[in-house]
Design a protein that fits this description.
single chain, 65 residues, mainly alpha
Length: 65
C-alpha cells in the first residue's frame, strides 16, 4: 500500500464503507437474545436487593478480594 486510504485521513468513504465492529456486536446480541428469549435492550426493572447499597466493603458477600 503506497498511500493512506482517503477514508482514514478525510473521513469520507468511497466504495464499501461498513461498520464491521458494530455489525458484529449487533449480530452477537441478536444471537444472545434468540438463545435466551430475553431482550437486553434496557436495564432490568427488577434489580436484586443487594444492588441498592454499594457501601459494603469488598468481599463482604464472600469470595476472594
Amino acid at each position: 500500500m503506497k498511500e493512506m486510504p482517503s477514508r482514514d485521513t478525510s473521513g469520507k468513504c468511497q466504495g464499501e464503507c461498513r461498520d464491521r465492529v458494530f455489525e458484529g456486536e449487533d449480530n452477537r446480541q441478536k444471537t444472545i437474545n434468540q438463545e435466551r428469549s430475553v431482550s437486553y435492550s434496557a436495564p432490568s426493572e427488577n434489580s436484586p436487593s443487594w444492588t441498592s447499597n454499594r457501601d459494603d466493603p469488598p468481599g463482604s458477600m464472600g469470595g476472594r478480594v
